[in-house]
């Protein structure tokens, strides 16, 4: 590869079980055995096969696969950006039997495919089961001039549907609708509910500020619940998939809403002294750089880290309902670490279900 864009990283990826390695070159994917790079001196280091993908810009495998799978067959998404007036193309392939019959004569047609303009690069977000993916495309310049941040579109790729074993590509319907120029509202964020044992669903924030947050069915992409309009641009799910945080981070003021997905309502907050429910929910994390739920889904952390933010540098911890835990209740006290700057803060990961 003579050039490398940020969205092409990493050009070398393993399947979820690490049995195969795929390496992207111009217009092709080279397929190796998973341990090939430890044995270049032997015949095992040679390529297993190649997959032709004309104009390929990036590709992605699901990190995990949950439930029943087809033995020795692997799903992958391939994105080919716009080129010389031709629309961009997003395809869902299954290696080795559904890689596209036009480019790979010994293979069958792709499972699902979608052509679209206004797509320079994309983010591929796999569902926790590994059988569907959200594709968020983006352009740096909005042709309508409506947005300084460019334009974006959201698609759902399914490996199979209720009607047949073939997949489908769906343009996700956005409740924020279209603007005055009949252009699709911008998509600020989209995220899958991470629990693979529950029916799949995903959340989307779209539209001009105050943006609309919505919950969508994982197979039809239809909106099933509207969280409402607010100055929010970030979705963070708790690991067990019941709680969801809608935050206004980055260039927004840092407001946060904490919802219970089962009850489809905000999680109540209570006064620590009287025990009475608070009428006004106040959860705010200005200058947030990092954010994450704890593995047990009981705490939410926001960090302000250097070098992006040196003012108010530190970490803040919240209960699952959005009430901040004060310094005397936790071992972390920001002032003890001054004047050294916090560079990163992460929860130690735990295998799902523990």
Descriptive overview:
The chain has no helices and 24 strands. It has strands at residues 12-14, 20-25, 28-33, 49-52, 58-60, 74-80, 88-95, 112-116, 121-126, 132-139, 151-158, 168-171, 187-192, 201-206, 211-217, 223-230, 234-237, 243-247, 256-260, 265-266, 290-293, 299-304, 314-319, 324-325. The chain is globular, with a radius of gyration of 22 Å. It folds into 2 domains: 1-184, no CATH class; 231-354. The strands form 6 sheets. Strands 1-2-3-4 form a 4-stranded antiparallel β-sheet, with no helix packed on it. The protein has a 4-stranded antiparallel β-sheet with strand order 5-6-7-8, with no helix packed on it. Strands 9-10-11-12 form a 4-stranded antiparallel β-sheet, with no helix packed on it. By secondary structure, it is mainly beta.
What is the residue-mean pLDDT, rounded to a whole number? Answer: 81
Helical residue percent band:
under 10%
Beta percentage is 35-45%
Sheet with most strands: 4 strands, antiparallel
Structural class estimated from helices and strands: mainly beta
Rg from Cα: 22 Å
How are the strands of the largest sheet arranged? Answer: 1-2-3-4
Q: Quick one: how many beta strands?
A: 24
pLDDT under 50 segments (min length 5)? none
Alpha carbon gap, first and last residue = 41 Å
Please give the count of helices: 0
Oligomer: single chain
Rough outline: globular
Order of helices and strands: EEEEEEEEEEEEEEEEEEEEEEEE
Number of domains: 2
């Amino acid at each position: 590869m003579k050039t490398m864009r940020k969205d092409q990283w990493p050009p070398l990826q393993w399947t979820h079980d690490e049995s195969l390695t795929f390496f992207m070159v111009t217009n092709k994917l080279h397929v190796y055995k998973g341990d090939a790079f430890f044995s270049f001196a032997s015949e095992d280091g040679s390529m297993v096969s190649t997959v032709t993908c004309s104009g390929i810009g990036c590709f992605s495998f699901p990190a995990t696969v949950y439930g029943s799978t087809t033995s020795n067959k692997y799903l992958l998404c391939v994105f080919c950006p716009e080129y010389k007036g031709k629309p961009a193309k997003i395809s869902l392939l299954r290696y080795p039997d559904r890689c596209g019959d036009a480019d790979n004569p010994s293979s069958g047609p792709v499972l699902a495919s979608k052509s679209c303009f206004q797509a320079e690069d994309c983010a591929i977000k796999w569902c926790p089961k590994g059988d569907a993916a959200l594709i968020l495309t983006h352009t740096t310049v909005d042709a309508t001039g409506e947005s300084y941040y460019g334009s974006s579109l959201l698609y759902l790729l399914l490996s199979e549907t209720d009607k047949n074993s073939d997949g489908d590509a769906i343009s996700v319907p956005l409740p924020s609708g279209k603007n005055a120029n009949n252009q699709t509202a911008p998509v600020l964020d989209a995220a899958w509910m991470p629990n693979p044992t529950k029916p799949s669903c995903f959340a989307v924030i779209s539209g001009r500020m105050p943006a609309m947050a919505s919950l969508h069915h994982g197979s039809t992409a239809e909106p099933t619940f509207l969280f409402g309009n607010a100055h929010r641009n970030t979705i963070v799910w708790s690991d067990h998939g019941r709680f969801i945080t809608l935050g206004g981070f980055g260039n927004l003021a840092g407001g946060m809403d904490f919802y219970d997905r089962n009850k489809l309502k905000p999680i109540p907050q209570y006064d620590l002294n009287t025990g009475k429910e608070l009428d006004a929910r106040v959860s705010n994390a200005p200058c947030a750089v990092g954010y994450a739920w704890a593995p047990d889904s009981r705490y939410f952390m926001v960090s302000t880290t250097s070098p992006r933010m040196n003012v108010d540098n530190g970490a803040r911890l919240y209960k699952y309902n959005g009430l901040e835990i004060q310094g005397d209740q936790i071992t972390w006290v920001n002032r003890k670490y001054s004047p050294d700057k916090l560079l990163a803060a992460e929860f130690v990961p735990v295998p799902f279900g523990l």
